[in-house]
Amino acid sequence: MTTVTAYAAPAPKAPLERTTIERREVGEFDVLIDIKYAGICHSDIHQAREGWGEAIFPMVPGHEIAGVVAEVGTGVTGFAVGDRVGVGCMVDSCRECDNCKAGLEQYCTKGAVMTYNGVGKDGQPTYGGYSQKIVVDENYVVGIPEGIGLDEAAPLLCAGITTYSPLRHWNAGPGKKVAVLGMGGLGHMAVKLAHALGAEVTVLSQSLRKQEDGLKLGADHYYATSDPRTFEELAGTFDLIVSTVSAPLDFGAYLALLRTDGALVNVGAPEEPISLNLFSVITGRKTLAGSGIGGIQETQEMLDFCAEHGLGAEIEVIRADQINEAYERVLASDVRYRFVIDTATI
Length: 346
What we know:
The chain is an alpha/beta fold. Helix content is 24%, strand content 26%.
């Protein structure tokens, strides 16, 4: 075991504090990564505050991890010391179910092992990226191409793949009208990716406060959802709406913005249940769907796509001792658009 410094929540809703954790020794197929940057995802806050249910403490959050390989096991073939690499939301899965075999490890029928707030196959709790180092099986590590800075690459490991996966699955591209609901950490990446895929992109945000940013990032149109006229003007417009919002919505109102056979896909996960009049989907044969991160192969595909198109996250780099302040700023929508921890400050 190796002792490393990390930032952890000692209990639900408690401020994160500097501590030490144990990382396992490097096994035959493991990669030891010197973490350089770790993104702060809204999911980290949900879990550290038990918004999604009972969690494991102490908790070291962080599933947007970018770093450099420091050591590899004797059986590792895909990575070498010095490689730029990333780790996203999961670090293992059963590898045997139909979903795992199809490259959909995120939907492992036995449950993927999450990067933090999970339990590994060794029975030990998993700890995430708010730390100096991490040991991960090579099959759950991806390469970060040259041309993307490690700092702006870190959020791609969750915010990037979480929006890329549904855009690809629902065929966002030329001739398709795509709306992105919410212009935060996930939403700003959805705009960049949908634009790069060739779709006509509309941002639906509470206000026009971030309109200039949205248009710069690739949106063709920008509407305020606080204005009732938006829903009248855009009725029946979109092939696909990607909702990045993690608060309850009037889903009926947004489903009315879809064309026949359109889909409203949720990647934001509200803590509260929703209610829905089913005529909202019956009329127009519409789909209300969800999507969770992406498989390892698709995550690599997304990183390569971002490198090819010169895409990275819009970030604000912070010191580790600013994590608690950053959490409050995320909740206040006071970040453009992703906080990234410089792990050298841990």
